[in-house]
Amino acid sequence: MNSRERVLARVRRAVGDASDSASSSYAQDVPRDYHEQHGARTAAETADLLAENLAEYRALVHRAQEADLPALIARLLAERDADSVLAPAGLPREWLSGVAARLVEDSPDSTPHELDEVTAVVTGCALAVAETGTLVLDGSPDQGRRRITLIPDHHICVVRVPEQLVSSVPQALPRLDPGRPLTWISGPSATSDIELDRVEGVHGPRTLQVILVE
């Protein structure tokens, strides 16, 4: 028996008789009794875990009340001397009411060069996963096209807590539409060369700031 046959045999054993019945399905026949999260947590503890894991990935985490959000966003942009800010069409405009920088609309006609000239982008998110420190964007109106969060060097992402917060990936998947362009973000873009020298900003923003809004 070669390696291919061994792998297929293991798949057949795992699936059991599901493939032999026209009326059965993989989702129905394979037991899914695994834990959906590691331990029980309150909403506050889940938010703390998300913040801890985001920081582990070198994202910058901030906490705010809804009323304080415009002032916080304006301060974070000013601290990095942002002169232009890209805002998706569905982003609440009151969030940017204190921003002094020029606002840039999310246009399908924008070229990569034009987006590279934008200092920062501010978006919402679809979900945040606490156990993995992951933000999920799905292209909704408050998040815009995928490329606007990959090209500008500074991304500010707003997460509503607890509405957009889940503990684990198994809890996140049923709440996401697989037909949408899902982008999973765990910290700012980074890579390491063969000598393990870390370089940030290679595949996406060099700076990721996450605001947890209660």
UniProtKB/TrEMBL annotation:
Biased composition, Basic and acidic residues: where in the chain?
A: 30-39
Domain LUD: residue ranges: 50-213
Signal sequence segment: none
**Cited PANTHER family:** LACTATE UTILIZATION PROTEIN C
InterPro entries (alphabetical): FTHF_cligase-like_sf (IPR024185), LUD_dom (IPR003741), NagB/RpiA_transferase-like (IPR037171)
Q: What is this protein called?
A: LUD domain-containing protein
* Pfam families cross-referenced by the UniProt entry: LUD_dom (PF02589)
The annotated region (Disordered) lies at 19-41
